[in-house]
Specification:
By secondary structure, the chain is α/β, with parallel strands linked by helices. The protein has 6 helices and 14 strands. The radius of gyration is 16 Å and the shape is globular.
Length: 211
């Protein structure tokens, strides 16, 4: 059985997820832990549950979703998986940090790239990679059909959508991605997003003011 634990981290209130199964195998998704205290909260949870971290997954590489990436990589030494188009976004983060008034070192660690429709596994659980550009070029979501859930990052929120005024954002492309890649999923699919509360596909199709 799959379990999802969320943590709201950093000044942007970004949702970091730990996804794990009954064999204590785990993915860490979008590690936004910023302070030492937040990093300890995340590490203490993993230690208490006796989890074996298999990979770090990134829906995308905006700075609020990767503030803890280096610390988590250094701790668990597992490959970071993301879309190839997000490498440019990841590399821009030191410059973006300067705009927010803090220092951020370039990431140093192992990266592997995921593609549209690729399947990654956590034990027997399968996650399909869905490429959903618009918020940024290489944004992906992780769809677990058997569990009727998707970890969608900053694409679709409760009553809202992701920003498109950031570097290489594209509003028309984001709307197209949601309509053609997300809203085709079953209405009961639970959406675990990058900020705020979970929602469902059906609720957003019927109530989201952007559609």
């Amino acid at each position: 059985m799959l379990h999802i634990q969320s943590f709201a981290f950093n000044p942007f209130s970004e949702n970091t997820y730990v996804v794990f199964n009954e064999h204590q195998e785990a993915f860490i998704i979008d590690p936004g832990n910023f302070s030492e205290e937040e990093t300890k909260v995340l590490q203490n949870f993993i230690h208490a549950k006796e989890l074996k971290v298999k990979n770090v997954l990134l829906t995308h590489a905006h700075i609020d979703h990767v503030l803890g990436l280096q610390a988590i990589f250094d701790q668990y030494k597992v490959p970071v998986l993301m879309h190839e188009l997000e490498k440019e976004i990841l590399d821009r983060n030191p410059m973006d940090a300067n705009r927010f008034g803090f220092f951020f070192k370039p990431f140093e660690g192992e990266i592997s790239y995921l593609k549209e429709d690729e399947i990654i596994q956590l034990g027997m659980d399968e996650f399909k990679i869905i490429h959903v550009p618009g918020h940024c070029p290489g944004h992906i979501a992780f769809y677990h059909e058997a569990g009727s859930l998707i970890i969608s990052g900053d694409v679709l929120f409760e009553g809202s959508i992701g920003r498109t005024d950031l570097y290489k954002g594209d509003h028309a492309q984001l709307i197209k991605s949601i309509k053609e890649k997300i809203f085709v999923l079953p209405d009961e699919t639970k959406v675990f997003n990058g900020h705020g509360n979970p929602t469902t596909i059906g609720f957003e199709k019927n109530h989201n003011p952007y559609f």
